[in-house]
């Protein structure tokens, strides 16, 4: 019974740390780029776009499809960086504990 009590205590501590990390995701910002830096998108730790910056040289009313593709690519780049950050922070909290395939933590 003592082991179960310790496991429950550790699980509660880990849950508290996960909640802390999730609360801090609003403060995390990752920037993605495309078009050799002509488009930059900044995303917070929850995957919400916070900023977008466009180089004036790519703003051409006749080529909006190219601009749309560059924005999408920059957003996807930033989102991958956020996902990598969350995975890294989660791994730190889990202390190397691997979750079984298919089980994801709520983010």
From TrEMBL:
Hydrolase as UniProt keyword: no
Role summary: Binds to DNA and alters its conformation. May be involved in regulation of gene expression, nucleoid organization and DNA protection.
Subcellular location as annotated: Cytoplasm, Nucleoid
UniProt-recorded name of the protein: Nucleoid-associated protein D3877_09035
Subunit comment: Homodimer.
Domain of life: Bacteria
Compositional bias per record (Low complexity), positions renumbered to this chain: 7-23
Coiled-coil regions, chain positions: none
